[in-house]
Amino acid sequence: MNISALSPAQLQQRLRERGLCIRTGPFVTRVHTSLAAAAEGIGLLYADYPLAEEEDFADFHIRLALPNGLRRWLKPQVLFLFDGTRTFKPLPADQAFPMFEWGLNWCVSSHAQSYLIIHAAVLEKHGHAVILPAPPGSGKSTLCAALAQRGWRLLSDELALIRIADGCVVPLPRPVSLKNASIDIMRQYTPDAVFSRQVRDTMKGTVAHMKAPADSVARASECARPGWVIFPRYEAGADARLTVVPKARAFMRAADNAFNYSLLGQQGFASLAGLIGASSCYDFTYSKLDEAIDTFNQLALPALLP
């Protein structure tokens, strides 16, 4: 049963009373909230996600709540509670859905230690994953959103999960976070995609989320083998260009983008070495999405590389 099977009234009641158990990739999250802004975003962007059984183990317990006192009524705010504990500073109440997304990223990156976790977008084609580590402002999410709408399977917009046991890339498809100018770019580039309403004046500027393709959500249990590690950078006016990155340098740059590389110690080193060893590594600059997608579609499969 998917979330879309619930009517808006049923969804709000579940969120308000028993909590909604959402299965995203390998995780189950139980979320409680009475905030309309959060329910709106979940109903719109998580419609295709399966509901876990209420008796199933939940990895994360999240509550989005209004604070007590005047802040409940005067310039209302939202609190993010993890296992009943306030985790972040409160935000304006209309930022409830972005806060849910940011908080869920924190839950995974802080607690899922059976994976090497890299701050990166991840997509898949022909069974191989392309991993895009990059800092904010590099055009990573815009490129990821465009690829996900042009034949690449979305595995994640923010968190690359490398399973320590076997080195496979584990999907965690969730809404793609877009900021500022990239929102209108993607609205024009993919007019049939579903977007949340824009939320202004957040700590990241204006933000909106694009719904993950239904096929990516349905195939969330299909892992991928490492194929490419590509460091993307948007550069106005630049032609799409791939430049080979030596593996030693790629290793260090990927480690810089990992959340738990040091925490995992030897396992982290071995996992990252396995990932880089099995991947072709490039820098990538682009300015036009169509050129970027053409370049990605022409990537040689790892098995065919000399």
Automatic annotation (TrEMBL):
One of the record's GO molecular function terms: kinase activity
Keyword entries, A-Z: Kinase, Transferase
Protein name in the entry: HprK-related kinase A
Record SUPFAM superfamilies: PEP carboxykinase-like
Gene3D superfamilies cross-referenced by the UniProt entry: P-loop containing nucleotide triphosphate hydrolases (3.40.50.300)
Domain of life: Bacteria
Provenance organism: Noviherbaspirillum sedimenti
InterPro entries reported in the protein's UniProt record: HprK-rel_A (IPR027600), P-loop_NTPase (IPR027417)
